[in-house]
Structure formats: C-alpha cells, structure tokens
Amino acid sequence: MKPLHLLLVVLILAGLGARLYGLGDGLIWRDEGIAAIAGIKLHHENPYDARFFSSEHPPVGRWLIGLPTAWSDADFRDVLAIPPHLFAFTYLTPFKDVTVPMRTMVALGGILAVLFVFLIGKELFGTEAALWSAAIASLSLDYIAYSRILYTDMFALAFSAGTLYFYIKYLRAPASREWKSAADYVAANKKAIFFSLMIAFLVLALGSRLLYPLFLIPIIILSQLLVGKGWKQTASVIGAVVVALVLFLQVVYPPDLQAFAFQVHYGVGGYEGFVRLESNPVRFVEMLFLRNSYAYAFSLVAGMAAVFLLWRKHRKGSVRHLVRWLHTFDERPVMAVAFGVSFLIYLATRYGTVPSYTEFIHLPAFVLGGYAIARMSVPVKLVALVLLFVAVASIATIHPFYADYANFGQKDFVIQDFSGAYDPQYLVQDMLTNYLPTLQGPLLSNEQSILFKADAEPIPPEGFPDCTASFLDRFKDGYIIYRGSYTSSPTLENDQYLCQLLKTYPLELIRTFPTGDPEDPYPFLVYRVAP
C-alpha cells in the first residue's frame, strides 16, 4: 500500500472511531429522548399502535434505534403507557440501561454511510479518489455529531448512499439473456441483484426520515435520462422508482400515519417544504462549509476549480458537445446530478437553513471533492492531508460536546446527566426530578406538546385533538407546565400560538423555574388548573 493511501486509511479509522468512542458520556438531549421512546415502543407490546408515537418521521429509523432494547431486561412499562399523541420527559425511561446500545446503532449507521461514500468513489473514480472521499466524510464534524446522538439522520444518509451505489452498479453491470430458470437468471445477471438492492435501499431511505430521501427520486430519474441506456432500461428504472414510492406511501408510511403526524405534532406540515421558497444564501453557505472540516471546504474549492478549468477548455463547444463529453464518463454524471439537484433544492427552499437537512448535499460533494483532490498535484494533496489532520485535532478538542455541536452551537434543553458533573441547566433538572413528582394530578405542557405523568388519567387509544374541551377537562385540578422560549412569549396568556381554549380555564401561577441558560430568558412557569 502506498504511504499516502496508508495515511488516508488511518485518518478514516480515526473518524470512524470517534463515532464509537465514549457513547455513554455526555447528556441525553430532548430529541434523543423522543426517538428513544419511539424506538422502545416499536419493539414491545403497547396498548396503542407504536407507529403513531413520534410519527412525524417514518418508522424505519426509529425501529433501528430501538432494536437493542428488544433484548433488554429493563422495565419499560412507563414508556409503553405513553399514548401516541403525547411526548414525555426522559426521566420516565431507563436510559442508563440502553443508551449505549441505541447510540451504537446510530454510530453503525454513520460508519455505513462512510463505507458507501468509499464504494461510490471507488466505483466511479478509483481507489485513491475513494480514500480521499471517505477520509473527508469520516472526519466531517457534522457527520460525527449526528452519528453519536439518537437521531435517524445517519440511517437515512447511509441508505441514500447505498441507493446511489447500487444504482451505479446496476447501470454498469452486464445483462445476460441466456437463462433457463429464475435461479440461473439471477446467477448470470448481476443487474437484477443490483436493481433489487437499489429499490430495497430506496425504500429503507424513504422510511428512515421524512423529506430529504425523497430527493433520490428526481436524482435517479434525471441521471437515467442523462446516462442514456436505452428507453427500455429507462422505463424500467422509472417504473421501479414509482413502485418504491407507492410502497413507501402505502405500507411503510401509510396515509393514516401521515395524517395523524401532520395534524398533531407541532412544526410538521407535510411535504410543502419542497415548494416553500425561502432562500438564505448566507445561511446556506454556512451550512455547506462550516459544519464540516476545512478539508471538506478545500475539496469543494478544488472541485469548483476543476469545473472552471473544464469550462474554459470546452467553452467554445456546443451543448451537444458537453453532453457527449459527459457520456464519455459512463455513470459519473450521477454524482453531478445528485449534487446539482440537492444544491438547487437547498439553495432555493427553507431546507438550506436547517442543519439536519443540508447533510444530504454532502454525500455527492464528498465523492466529487475526493475525486478533485485525487486529480490535483502533489502540493495540493499535501495541503489537503494537513487539513485532514487538523480535522482530527478538532475532533479531539471538541469531544465530548458532539451533541452541542450538532445543534450548531445552540444550547439545548438538558434532560439527564449521567456523569454527575456540573449541569448548567441544573434548575430545570431539579424541577424534573424533585418538584414535578410531588404534584398530584395530571400534567399538561407545551414542552414537546405534552408532559406525561404515569398517574395521569388514561387517554383513549384512538386519541383526539389537543385543543378540545373534552381533552382539556381532564387536566382540571391538575397542572400546566409552560415554557415561553418556544414562542418567545413570557407567559401563557401572551402566547398567540398556544391553544386559545386553554386560556379560558382558571389558572393560578404557583411557581417559576429559570432554565439556567443565559441564552434563554424565559423561565418554566407552573400553573395550577382550578377544578
């Protein structure tokens, strides 16, 4: 193995190791608790349909997160009692027993994503380009952060990369018409295997996270039209993609599940984000460059330089000449289409300002960036290598604050501290562990919709809308825990977004809890609902 290749392998392993190191350290963050509860419920018997809890995302990613709990002896009774349209604080769950196994599942998804980046690069551009691509992806601070917390992003990214990889393998595989049985056909025709794997990974990607895996559909269709393998193959691919989409929308994430999620869960509005134009170029550039390593930014610059030089070389040619040039690279335009489609969607819509959504654009950028560096001169490669080592140093400096970085420097609501170290939000922790359990009666809160207490009155399995008298009457002689920071409203009475019917009930403010966060001026307010 060449010394350069060996160094790149070491760097890749360092990034992969960062995904697995110290997964039991740190804190449990708000969205981690929701994903963990959803995953636990999907692997145990519930009084409710487990798919409907946290159903703003399809269930595949949550099912994978909860898989290790299927063999756990922990007591999940409080978790399983939570109805589908309620959320719960994580002090109700035995996270100390299952945190590391669940986070390990996510970390493995992050490792699988890097593996597919390598395989795509090797298939299209050779071993050295693939190593550069995998090194940049492995040392992406953003990807490391999301590989260490209980989010479903890494599953969606890994399956998306797998979809593109098997699509490329399908395009390149030779087809054989000489067969006598189905077994002979599959043995002689790898094209059928890769085609099936492409569709399977597409369904898994769509089922892992809402919205951005849907970008795979226009990417595959446009790539198929550009590569031009004949109308029969093009029709087969488009037909299979449509079948996969129908399978996803009717089986994996059926209409009743979508309708429930879009109606009940706050902040979810369906698929309208594709057409909601909300361009923010400054924020987009921030998301594109600053959430990864300097080597990633350097690779993008190198790639842009390569495109510019190519344009200067062929600028006198016609569009037809450019298309012919693309065809000389076989299936390589797939990465260009993947980058172009996602780039335009993120630049022109609200997704460009949401950190977790911009992850998808990095997949093709990693591959193209690695290819660009591999084609550069030795001095350029040395600069890229130095930047990768700087990325390793950055990872060592940031640990164990990966989760904080995943929220782009924003302090989040700390739920549980395993280390026993100082918790800057100890006042909130004190409220959860010491004060709330002493309250007798059901609790209602705008913190992730509803704060559930085990002795609250059971809610019917069919559920019902939150803002109704039949629902709110259940909390008479109970309590409301209000957090104004979500709507920048200091009190419940001033909140224009909260259920207006709630304000007609006689409410008595009995206690205030500062969050302990200097960036959050709005405290928790505890109201008593008079009978």
How is the topology of this model organized?
Blueprint: H1 3-20, E1 27-29, H2 30-41, H3 59-66, H4 77-80, H5 95-125, H6 127-138, H7 141-146, H8 153-172, H9 182-188, H10 190-208, H11 216-227, H12 231-252, H13 255-264, H14 281-289, H15 294-314, H16 319-327, H17 333-348, H18 359-374, H19 378-398, H20 402-406, E2 414-417, H21 426-435, E3 443-445, H22 469-472, E4 479-483, E5 507-513, E6 524-529
Parallel strand pairs: 3-4
Antiparallel strand pairs: 1-2, 4-6, 5-6
Detailed description of the structure:
The chain is globular. The chain is mainly α and 531 residues long. It has helices at 3-20, 30-41, 59-66, 77-80, 95-125, 127-138, 141-146, 153-172, 182-188, 190-208, 216-227, 231-252, 255-264, 281-289, 294-314, 319-327, 333-348, 359-374, 378-398, 402-406, 426-435, 469-472; strands at residues 27-29, 414-417, 443-445, 479-483, 507-513, 524-529. The model is unreliable at 265-269, 407-425 and 448-465 (pLDDT under 50). The chain has 22 helices and 6 strands.
Kindly summarize this structure in a few lines.
With 531 residues, this protein is mainly alpha-helical. It is built from 22 helices and 6 strands.
Tally of contiguous helical segments: 22
Overall pLDDT confidence: 77
The rounded distance between the terminal residues' Cα atoms is 76 Å
- Oligomeric state of shown chains: single chain
Annotation, overall tally of beta strands: 6
The largest sheet is: 4 strands, mixed
Going by helix content, strand content and strand pairing, the class is: mainly alpha
Q: Tell me the strand percentage band.
A: 5-15%
Shape: globular
What is the H/E string? Answer: HEHHHHHHHHHHHHHHHHHHHEHEHEEE
Sheet with most strands: strand arrangement: 3-4-6-5
How large, in whole angstroms, is the Cα Rg? 25 Å
Could you list the spans in which at least 5 consecutive residues all have pLDDT below 50? 265-269, 407-425, 448-465
Helix content: 40-55%
